[in-house]
Amino acid sequence: MGKRATTVDEQIEILESRGLNIGDKEKAKEILQDVGYYRLGFYLFPFEKSYPNLRNRTHEYIEGATFEDAVFLYYFDFDLRLILSRYLNRIEIAFRTELVYYLSNKYKDNSIWFADKSILDKPYVADFEKKVYNSDFRRYPSIRRHHQAYPNDRFAPAWKTLEFMTFGAVLKLYENLRDKEDKIYIANKFGVRQIVTFENYMHTIRQIRNACAHGLLLYDLQLIKAIRKGPAKSISSERNNLIGALKVIKYIMSFISNNRVKNMKEELEGLYDMLCQEAPFLKPLILNLSKI
After folding, report:
1. Fewer CB within 10 Å, N- or C-terminus of the chain?
2. DSSP 3-57
């Protein structure tokens, strides 16, 4: 039988019984109702005595830990997601645009090259309609209008179709290109020579993008796959955490817009400066976890 639900008042009592200092209880209740007890727990976790152990947790807090500490960490993470989302979106669009432009011009007489078994791996093409161009995909207004205008077309042309594919789906398409020269051309456009390194970089970017989109934690993010050694110059201790991912993002962005790299750097520095000024006690925690 699972644990029972708790009221906000009960949640306050639980946190205090575990040693957490709550200065303004009314404000704490407001935040709990806004953020949620479960979600805020991810930002309270670093202040537990047993941290970072996930097993046999006592949920007791270290001496001096406050509710406000966790709230500030939550907003730091929230602001970090907002900053990164803007630049990750820029990379996604640039990658998609380069892929469509290059391949559509290379295969000028084949506007649906993405479904051609001579251009992409056969299993990918065989599953494309089921996994990508399904009934839900056809509901996008632009796609629906295309098929109303051209009822005999099985697919809309590449410049329409890829526009509505997810980042993951576009990356999957790239991975299934049969001609390595096509892959190399795209990778070189973003300053990467080796296909395997470029794919690794793009998967790193995709993971950060998904974390931002779904509100996942960034401050102690651990990448599923380590960042490969390459031109982004992430060292071994950074290959699984946020700072390594930031280096990849900045590197790829530098081949899109140096001004955007500068803006991103300034925004991240501004966020970090705010942390140092308003919550200096969190600086060691952030440095230890994210290496920012």
Report:
1. N
2. PPP--HHHHHHHHHHTT-B-S-HHHHHHHHHHH-HHHHHHHHGGGBTTTT--SS-
Rounded to the nearest angstrom, the gap between the alpha carbon of residue 71 and the centroid of all alpha carbons in its chain is 22
Q: Are 162 and 151 in contact (CB under 8 A)?
A: no
User: Rounded distance, CA 94 to CA 43, Å?
Assistant: 34
Which residue reads 């935040």 in tokens?
Answer: 31
180: tokens are 């390595």
Per-residue DSSP letter, 120: B
Tell me: the pLDDT tens digits for 192-230?
999 999 999 999 999 999 999 998 888 888 898 999 999
Entry pTM? 0.90
CA–CA distance, 64 with 236 (Å, rounded to integer): 34
CA 213 to each of CA 133, 146, 192: distance values in angstroms, whole numbers, following the listed order: 23, 29, 26
Interacting residues of 9 by C-beta distance below 8 A, sequence separation 6+: 29
What is the DSSP secondary-structure string of 129-141?
HHHTSSTTGGGSH
